Amino acid sequence: MKAKIKVTLKNGVLDPQGKAIEHALGSMGFSGVNGVRQGKFFEVELAETDKAKAEVMLKQMCEKLIANTVIENYAIELA
Amino acid sequence: MKAKIKVTLKNGVLDPQGKAIEHALGSMGFSGVNGVRQGKFFEVELAETDKAKAEVMLKQMCEKLIANTVIENYAIELA
């Protein structure tokens, strides 16, 4: 079973990397870019075939390793 | 207009960061993890309101700055 995980910074957390991209786009001539936020994206291949069990496992993975829940949100999508 | 961009490594491109996460999950007791690939995720806020124009602009941004098209694929999603 394949899963996709998006990890994004919580609102209010500064994102200097996103800001750098925003400024770079501006100086490259792209106008009207009002904001860029960078996050992380993971594709996980699981042997588990039960959707409910897989979701529980993925949540634990996110809480314990993949996301820093103090400053980051995560979203799990099962395919 | 908000856009989401996913940047993922092409098939066949080595992903040591993903491999490290895979091994870490294994040693933390998560069994049945057959693969992890890490990518990047961007949220872009555009002043442009025309969907077609925004898509053209986002494609150019990806080709020129956000993705390295030699080793990465990108997917644009307009909300």
Descriptive keywords:
homodimer, alpha+beta, Mth169, Chain: A, three-stranded antiparallel beta sheet, 3 strands
Question: Topology, pairings included?
Answer:
2 copies of one chain form a homodimer.
Chain A: E1 2-9, H1 16-27, E2 33-46, H2 51-66, E3 72-78
Antiparallel strand pairs in A: 1-2, 1-3
Describe this structure in words.
The structure is a homodimer of 79-residue chains. By secondary structure, the first copy, chain A, is α+β, with helices and mostly antiparallel strands. Chain A is 35% helix and 37% strand. The first copy, chain A, contains 2 helices and 3 strands. A 3-stranded antiparallel β-sheet of chain A has the order 2-1-3. The termini of chain A are close together. At the A-B interface, strand 1, helix 1, strand 2 and helix 2 of A face strand 1, helix 1, strand 2 and helix 2 of B. Strand 2 of chain A pairs antiparallel with strand 2 of chain B.
What integer is the average pLDDT of chain A?
96
What pattern of helices and strands is seen along the backbone of chain A? EHEHE
Structural class of chain A comes to alpha+beta
* Count of individual beta strands of chain A: 3
| CATH hierarchy, class of chain A | Alpha Beta
What portion of the residues of chain A fall into strands of 2 or more residues?
35-45%
Main β-sheet, spatial strand arrangement of chain A: 2-1-3
Give the largest interface: A-B, 33 and 33 residues
Give a quick account of the main beta sheet of chain A: strands, pairing sense, barrel closure: 3 strands, antiparallel
Could you list the spans of chain A in which at least 5 consecutive residues all have pLDDT below 50?
none
